C-alpha cells in the first residue's frame, strides 16, 4: 500500500572493538560525555555553519594513540560526532592519509557505506571551543543521552512564538545541512529505531497551511465581516509571505514596508482656478447641448401632438366621408384618363410619324440633289482638266470670292406641295380627340384635377408621388400639340407659346404656391427633358442638315436656351440628354465624312481665278468653312474633345490646310485665315498661355505668310494692314511666341501693344 524504501544505517562498528570496550569507554569518559552533551545547545550560528566541505588539502595533526589517530572529528548542526576511517582507506608511502576531497561517498558490493572526513572550520571552532590542533577524542554518547538531547531540541522548537510555514511544523524551508543533520541524528545514531514495516502509520489529518490557519483565526472573531476585512487579511498574509523571503532590517516594521510598496507621489499636480473654470465651462457646454437636444425633441413632440390633434378633429368632424368620396372620384377619373390615353396614343403616334416622314423625305431629296450635283461637276471638271479644255462659264465677280455657299432650298413648287401635305396632317390631328371630353385631353383641365387633390389632401398627394407621374401621363397630350412645331425653322411657332406650356408652368409655380413648398417645381424640367428633347432628337436624326446655316443656327440657339433655363446639358446628364448629344455628334461626324470634298487640280488651273477648276475648288473650300462654323455653334453643349476632333483634326488639318498651303497670293491667304479663325470657339483659348497643338500648322502658315509679305513688299501700303491681320489672328489663338517673332524682326511693336490692349 505504501511503497516506501527502507532507510539504511551508514554507521559501522569497528571490527576489533567489543561490547566491553564500548561500555568501559563509556564509563571512563562519562564526565567527558556529560560535558559534551551539556554543550549541545541551540546556539545562534553564522549562515555558513555546519559541515564544511572543500577540496583544499587537509591540515596535518600530530600523531596520537591508535584509537585517536584513526578517528576524525565530525561536527554537525546538532553537535559533534565521530566517524571512523574505513579500514580500506588508502595511504601514501609515508603513512600519511591521501589528500582528497573533504566529503566523499563510495558504494561497495557488500553494502553501502558512508565515509566522512569532516573538519571543523574556523567559525565552528568558536561555537564548540575546539580546533583541529586538539587531539582530544569525542566519544559518542549512548542512546539514552541522545534521546534526551533530541527531546530537549524539540522542546526548544515548540517554544517558538511564530506559526510554522511547513506542513510538518517546520519554521523555515529546509536546507541540505539540516537534512544531513537529521540523517545523522536519526539514521546514524539511533540503532534501536524500528524499520519502516514496523513503524506505526498514523492516519491523522494533514497540517493546515498558513492561509488556512489565518482564515480560521480571523473567522473566529465573527463570520459577518465585510469585504474590507477580508482584503486586510489577504494583505496580512501576503506581507507575512514576503517578509519570510525578504531579509528584514532591525527595527523595521510591517507598516514601513507597506509604505515602501505603495508608490505615493510626493507632490500632486497643482489645480489652478483657471483649470477648474475650464472644466466647469466644458461641463456647462455639454449640459447646454443636451438641453438644446431636449428642446428640439420637445418641439417635435409638440408638432406631432398638433398634427395628431388636427387629425383627430378631422375624424371627429366627419371629414372622412368626404375624403373617401374624393378618393373614389379621383380614382375613377384617373382610370378613365389612362384608358383614354391608351387608346388615343396609337393615333397620335401615327400622325407624328406621318409628319416626320414628310419632313425627312424633303430633307433627303435636297441632300441627294446637292451630292449628285457635286459629283457630276467634279467628274466634268476632272475630264476637262485631263483634256486641257476650257470650260465655258461666266467670269466670276468680286462678290463671289470669299463668300459662303448658300443653303440648299426646295423649289417654289416643292415648297407649296410640302405645305399642302403638312396642313392635311395637322387637320387629321385635330380629329384625334373629337370624341373625348375636354377634361381628358386638355392639359389645363387635367392638371386642375390634380391641383384640387394637392390643395385638399396635400399629404396623400405627395405620398402618391404625383409629381413623378405627371410627365409620363401628359406625354401624349403634349406631343399632340407639338405636331406642327418645327425646331429648325426660326419663323415657326415657339414651344413656349403653346397651351400646354402655360398650363404646366402655372401648375408648378402659380396659384399662390411657392417653389419650396412642394415637389411639383421639377415637373416642368422633367417634361422638357422627357418629352420635348426626344421630339427635337427626331428632327436631328431625320431632318437636320448640318451644312445649312439657317437650320444649324435655329437648332443650336434652341438648345442653348434650354441649357440656360433648365440646365439640361450641365452636370451629370440623364439618359434622354445623353441620347440627344450622341445624335447631334453622330450627325455632324457623318456630314464631315460624306459632304466635304475639296478637289485637287494642277497649279496652272488654280492660279487662274477665272478657271472653272479654281471656282469649284473655292466653292468646296467655303462649304467646309461653313460647316466648320456650324459645328462651332455647339460649344458648351457638346464636349470640347468631340468638337476639337471634328473641327481641327478633321476639317482644318485634313481639308482646309491643304488649300491654304497651296495659296500663292499672300493677301488672299491672310483673308482666308481670318475667316477660318472666326469659327473657333473663344472658350477654347481661355486660361491658355500657348497655342493648342492642333493649331500648330495653322499658326506656322500665318508666320510664313507674314515673312513673305514683309520680304517681298516691305514698302507696299497694304503690307502693314496685312501684318496687322496676321498678328490679330495669331493673338486670337494664343500664339504669342510667333507674334513676338514678327514684331521683333520687322519692328511692329506698336501693333503688338495695340493688340494686347484690345
TrEMBL record:
- The ranges of region (Disordered) come to 1-105, 149-210, 216-235, 240-260
Residue span(s) of domain GCF C-terminal = 444-656
Regions of biased composition (Basic and acidic residues) lie at: 196-210
The GO terms this record gives for MF are: DNA binding
Instruction: Output compositional bias ranges, type Acidic residues.
Output: 178-195, 225-235
User: What Pfam families does its record include?
Assistant: GCFC, NTR2
One Gene Ontology term from the biological process aspect of the record = spliceosomal complex disassembly
Q: Which UniProt keywords apply?
A: Nucleus
| Major location (coarse) | nucleus
Q: Where in the cell is it found?
A: Nucleus
Any single Gene Ontology cellular-component annotation: U2-type post-mRNA release spliceosomal complex
Q: Where is the composition biased (Basic residues)?
A: 1-15
Concerning PANTHER family, the annotation shows: GC-RICH SEQUENCE DNA-BINDING FACTOR, INTRON LARGE COMPLEX COMPONENT GCFC2
Q: Hey, which family's this protein in? A: Belongs to the GCF family.
Please state what the protein is called.
GCF C-terminal domain-containing protein
Amino acid at each position: 500500500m505504501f511503497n516506501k524504501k527502507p532507510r539504511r544505517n551508514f554507521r559501522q562498528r569497528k571490527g576489533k572493538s567489543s561490547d566491553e570496550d564500548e561500555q568501559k569507554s563509556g564509563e571512563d569518559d562519562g564526565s567527558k560525555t556529560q560535558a559534551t552533551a551539556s554543550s549541545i545547545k541551540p546556539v545562534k550560528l553564522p549562515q555558513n555553519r555546519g559541515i564544511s566541505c572543500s577540496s583544499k588539502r587537509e591540515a596535518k595533526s600530530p600523531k596520537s594513540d591508535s584509537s585517536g589517530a584513526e578517528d576524525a572529528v565530525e561536527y554537525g548542526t546538532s553537535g559533534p560526532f565521530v566517524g571512523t576511517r574505513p579500514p580500506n582507506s588508502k595511504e601514501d608511502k609515508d603513512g600519511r592519509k591521501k589528500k582528497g576531497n573533504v566529503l566523499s561517498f563510495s558504494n561497495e558490493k557488500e553494502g553501502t557505506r558512508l565515509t566522512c572526513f569532516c573538519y571543523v572550520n574556523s567559525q565552528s571552532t568558536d561555537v564548540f571551543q575546539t580546533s583541529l590542533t586538539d587531539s582530544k577524542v569525542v566519544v559518542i554518547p549512548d542512546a539514552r543521552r541522545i534521546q534526551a538531547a533530541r527531546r530537549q531540541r524539540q522542546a526548544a522548537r515548540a517554544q517558538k512564538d511564530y506559526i510554522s510555514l511547513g506542513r510538518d511544523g517546520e519554521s523555515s524551508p529546509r536546507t541540505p545541512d539540516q537534512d544531513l543533520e537529521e540523517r545523522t541524528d536519526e539514521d546514524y545514531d539511533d540503532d534501536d529505531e524500528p524499520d519502516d514495516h514496523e513503524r506505526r502509520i498514523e492516519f491523522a489529518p494533514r497540517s493546515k497551511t498558513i492561509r488556512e490557519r489565518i482564515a480560521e483565526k480571523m473567522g473566529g472573531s465573527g463570520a459577518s465581516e465585510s469585504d474590507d476585512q477580508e482584503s486586510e487579511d489577504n494583505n496580512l498574509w501576503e506581507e507575512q509571505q514576503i517578509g519570510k523571503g525578504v531579509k528584514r532590517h532591525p527595527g523595521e516594521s510591517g507598516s514601513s514596508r507597506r509604505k515602501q510598496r505603495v508608490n505615493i507621489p510626493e507632490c500632486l499636480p497643482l489645480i489652478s482656478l483657471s483649470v477648474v473654470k475650464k472644466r466647469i465651462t466644458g461641463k456647462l457646454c455639454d449640459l447646454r447641448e443636451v438641453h438644446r437636444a431636449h428642446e428640439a425633441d420637445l418641439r417635435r413632440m409638440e408638432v406631432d401632438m398638433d398634427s395628431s390633434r388636427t387629425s383627430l378633429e378631422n375624424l371627429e368632424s366627419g371629414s372622412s366621408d368626404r375624403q373617401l368620396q374624393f378618393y373614389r372620384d379621383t380614382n375613377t377619373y384617373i382610370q378613365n384618363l389612362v384608358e383614354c390615353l391608351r387608346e388615343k396614343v396609337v393615333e397620335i403616334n401615327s400622325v407624328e410619324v406621318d409628319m416626320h416622314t414628310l419632313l425627312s423625305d424633303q430633307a433627303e431629296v435636297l441632300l441627294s440633289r446637292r451630292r449628285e450635283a457635286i459629283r457630276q461637276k467634279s467628274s466634268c471638271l476632272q475630264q476637262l482638266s485631263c483634256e486641257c479644255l476650257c470650260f465655258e462659264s461666266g467670269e466670276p465677280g468680286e462678290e463671289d470670292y470669299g463668300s459662303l455657299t448658300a443653303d440648299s432650298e426646295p423649289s417654289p413648287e416643292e415648297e407649296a406641295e410640302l405645305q399642302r401635305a403638312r396642313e392635311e396632317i395637322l387637320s387629321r390631328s385635330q380629329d384625334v380627340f373629337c370624341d373625348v371630353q375636354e377634361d381628358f385631353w386638355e392639359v389645363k383641365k387635367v392638371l386642375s384635377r390634380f391641383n384640387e387633390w394637392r390643395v385638399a389632401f396635400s399629404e396623400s398627394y405627395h405620398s402618391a408621388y404625383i409629381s413623378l407621374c405627371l410627365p409620363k401621363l401628359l406625354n401624349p397630350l403634349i406631343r399632340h400639340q407639338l405636331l406642327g412645331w418645327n425646331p429648325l425653322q426660326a419663323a415657326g411657332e415657339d414651344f413656349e407659346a403653346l397651351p400646354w406650356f402655360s398650363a404646366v408652368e402655372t401648375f408648378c409655380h402659380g396659384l399662390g404656391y411657392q417653389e419650396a413648398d412642394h415637389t411639383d417645381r421639377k415637373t416642368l424640367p422633367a417634361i422638357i427633358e422627357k418629352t420635348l428633347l426626344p421630339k427635337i432628337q427626331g428632327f436631328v436624326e431625320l431632318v437636320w442638315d448640318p451644312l445649312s446655316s439657317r437650320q444649324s443656327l435655329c437648332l443650336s440657339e434652341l438648345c442653348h436656351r434650354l441649357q440656360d433655363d433648365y440646365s439640361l446639358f450641365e452636370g451629370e446628364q440623364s439618359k434622354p440628354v445623353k441620347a440627344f448629344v450622341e445624335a447631334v455628334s453622330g450627325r455632324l461626324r457623318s456630314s464631315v465624312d460624306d459632304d466635304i470634298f475639296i478637289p485637287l487640280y494642277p497649279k496652272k488651273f488654280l492660279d487662274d481665278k477665272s478657271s472653272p477648276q479654281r471656282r469649284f475648288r473655292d466653292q468646296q473650300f467655303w462649304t467646309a468653312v461653313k460647316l466648320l462654323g456650324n459645328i462651332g455653334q455647339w460649344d458648351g453643349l457638346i464636349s470640347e474633345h468631340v468638337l476639337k476632333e471634328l473641327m481641327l483634326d478633321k476639317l482644318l488639318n485634313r481639308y482646309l490646310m491643304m488649300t491654304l498651303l497651296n495659296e500663292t497670293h499672300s493677301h488672299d491667304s491672310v483673308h482666308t485665315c481670318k475667316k477660318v479663325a472666326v469659327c473657333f470657339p473663344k472658350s477654347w483659348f481661355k486660361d491658355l498661355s500657348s497655342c493648342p497643338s492642333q493649331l500648330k500648322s495653322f499658326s506656322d502658315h500665318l508666320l510664313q505668310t507674314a515673312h513673305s509679305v514683309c520680304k517681298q513688299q516691305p514698302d507696299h501700303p497694304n503690307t502693314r494692314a496685312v501684318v496687322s491681320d496676321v498678328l490679330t489672328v495669331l493673338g486670337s489663338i494664343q500664339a504669342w511666341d510667333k507674334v513676338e517673332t514678327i514684331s521683333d524682326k520687322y519692328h511692329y511693336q506698336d501693333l503688338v501693344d495695340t493688340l494686347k490692349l484690345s
